[in-house]
Amino acid sequence: MATLFEKIWNAHVIQDLGDGWALLHIDRHLLHDLSGPPSLAAVAHRGLRLANADLVFATPDHAISSAPGRTGLTYPTGGRLWTALKATSEKLDVRLFDVDEDGQGIVHVMGPELGLVQPGVTLICGDSHTCTNGALGAVAFGVGNTESTHALATATLRMQRPKQMRLRLEGKLAKGVTSKDVILHAIAALGAASGVEHAVEYTGSAIDEMEIEARLTLCNLSVELGARSGIIAPDEKTIDYLRGRRFSPSGAEFEVAADHWRTLKSDPDAVYDRDFTLDVSQVAPTVTWGTSPEHALPIDGCVPDPARTGDAATREGEEKALAYMGLKPGQPIAGAKVDRVFIGSCTNSRLSDLRAAADLAKGRKVADGVIAWVVPGSVAVKRAAEAEGLDKIFRAAGFDWREPGCSMCVAANGEVAPPGARVVSTSNRNFVGRQGPGARTHLASPAMAVAAAVTGEIFDVRKL
Amino acid sequence: MQPFTTLEGPAAPLMLSNVDTDVIIRIDRLTGGGERGSLGHWAFEALRYFPDGSPDPNFVFNREPFRDAPILLAGPNFGCGSSREAAVTALMGLGVRCVIADGFGDIFVSNCFQNGVLPIRLPEPVVADLARRAESGRPMRVDLDAQTVAIGNHAVSFDIDRQRKAALLAGLDDIGLSLAAMDDIRAWQARDRLARPWVWTPVARPETMGEPA
What we know:
heterodimer, A: 464 residues, alpha/beta, Aconitase, domain 3, 15 helices, 18% strand, B: 213 residues, Aconitase, domain 4, 4-stranded parallel sheet, 15% strand
């Protein structure tokens, strides 16, 4: 009786260090321009080599410009990091997927897309949204620079096994509702700290029905539940997704691997330290109102009124969040005027996201005074979208069609909203200052982002 | 890593929930080439400075005797959000070596232990009580070996994982320990290449095939 996470963990233990600690093998290590250079430099500084350069992959995403026609140097500050990533990758023999090359993209978009992420592997990256990759049945989690340096030098980490949490998602999603709405609803229902010290596994009929890209979106927000990793057991959809990808096994080896992947699931009597079930059939299009992802509500809901909130700490938090967001206590969230719309990020920049957005943007126009961007998640997504003509649809509707990268999600690349600007964003964090000092972020699905862009306000996509 | 044994000084109360790593240190302070040692100035920027850059005199780290407080008392889920290790180095730049809260972001906790900073988890009412007692600026004493936090005659004990504690007390370097296990690592890899070739062959490069394991 073990969970899927525990089975993968146990299979990677090189030394049992006692008290739940293990020297754990790391099968895949992804690097980006922000956290990659210091970790690689630290390895070199110690006079070490990479334990297994073949397991390490790098791409610039955080600090590069997404402006049309950009180069690695278009955003000069990020250009230093890009230059450093290239130099350190070359020095330590790391495969780099550079700007404009097939394979470049947001690290959690390009990893699955290239077949680098397989069921049953352990995968790390110096980025908290590494949990995204658990959607393919991997144990995947974010690390800091020192842990990254450790893993580069040894292909291992010294880790303590987390507690186990299950989130069962049952029921059929209503029209206009996506996995993004489901996970925002879950974070609001359970709280932003509900997964702290836990690894979360998603199960249930809603997961069975979900396509792989929607699962990646769901797992992406595991860390906003507080969980360092999220995982979904592989099924035939996973296997179909992996077939034929550049770094997937090929030929007979793929079929042997697939047979192994089919065995990767939690035992029926596995024990979870926390166990939740949510009926997702009642979930509405969901949007955040405040400065934590747990500040989410249905599009037809009203923001909280702190005067009616019981405890003092919650009241103070709500007051600060409403003041920062420029919202009145108790006001309906729908109708708030929007200045910017951002469709992109490791949450929602894959081809299915862009198709859903383009479907709604077709024949409509971005409202006067609204600046709306579409930033595809990778070179491959961009090329595939252009082959389908999605770029033309977005441009005709008045959206900017840009180059792949993290862009406005992380605002480490000069791409920020001005103070006070209200942004509907398909990204994953609505923290204070996340999209620029004073910028006000509302998290939502790509469909809801288009609804906001074309109406100029936070708007129920079901009424479009 | 600098060992952690005992710590004494003012404890700054910052009792907001879900203080995330973006609030602890903004990302564009990290892209601008800021050295590790210089980040303290930018810690808690959005809370600490007005939009014109002048310090908010009400913010705890702008007030005496908390300017150089080595201990931070925080609300639940402190350090949630991104994996940036600079959230810890920025706190260290402020002079903080110990954070006490009812829960932390998991990656933040790992990053603390990698840098000799002690995160102590205590129930919210206990932290709130310590915050009230610390508001006067009276020094607090943290003793890792005894697992106690004391202010005046008031002392509370805390739990900590045995191995974390030992590593922090000794200032151990994890990388050195794991490099010493390289024979075991290579043996595991050799077995895994046979058991799960599909993990290894698709990413192997001809020019690196000669490398060990």
